[in-house]
Write a structure and sequence with these properties.
The chain is mainly α and 213 residues long. It contains ten helices and no strands. 50% of the residues are buried.
């Protein structure tokens, strides 16, 4: 009984601690900062209003978009990596829940950064970086689906949604650890929620395509 209580206690610490660490990393709004430093403008007032790579590309060009993509992926990986190692320091042993909570936290931090009044990005690049360390094969499959769907349909939003679904389905098919599977599912739900307006435009045939917006 005491072992079960102790395990539950450690899990709770891991969930809270991992979310905090991941959220802190994810909340850094690199796209916003790049545009602000370069032009003094608020990227949220241009294009789609998003702080991610696609909108930064619209405002500053291809190189700035690639830089934002790289930084958002890196902060996702950094959040997961740091959460795992903080967990080791806190509990003296590696606990899977820290990494899973850290990965989810980075996605939440990017999507709802407190530094911009909870107006963040869509979270896809950060998701790929975060879960690449946690579930590398499902993440690779998700990234591959994203690229293929994007190349065919020319809609980054549709490609992002397809990639998120592929990540979750592959994680489930491979019977990844329960904490990781739950984290991927919750992160995908967040991604879909953040794309709800895009989904409406896709249904109406109004979603912008790459090279046309």
């Amino acid at each position: 009984m005491f072992d079960s209580l102790n395990a539950a206690h450690n899990d709770l610490i891991g969930i809270i601690g991992g979310l905090i660490v991941g959220f802190t990393f994810g909340s850094i709004p690199f796209g916003y900062l790049l545009v602000r430093m370069k032009t003094g403008d608020d990227v949220r007032l241009s294009g789609s209003g998003n702080i991610g790579a696609t909108n930064v590309k619209r405002v500053l060009g291809k190189r700035a978009g690639i830089a934002t993509l790289f930084l958002d992926v890196a902060k996702g990986a950094g959040g997961t990596f740091t959460a795992v190692h903080v967990g080791i320091v806190v509990l003296g042993t590696q606990q899977p829940v820290w990494g899973a909570a850290g990965a989810l936290g980075t996605v939440l931090g990017h999507c709802y950064t407190p530094w911009l009044g909870l107006r963040g990005g869509k979270g896809v690049a950060t998701l790929l970086g975060a879960f690449a360390l946690l579930v590398p094969v499902p993440t690779a499959v998700g990234a591959g689906v994203l690229v293929v769907v994007g190349a065919i349909g020319r809609m980054i939003s549709l490609a992002s949604l397809a990639g998120s679904v592929a990540l979750v389905c592959t994680a489930w098919f491979r019977a990844e650890p329960s904490y990781s599977l739950v984290a991927t599912l919750l992160a995908a739900i967040v991604i879909f929620w953040r794309h709800r307006e895009n989904i409406g435009r896709i249904k109406r045939g109004e979603e912008a395509k790459l090279g046309k917006a």
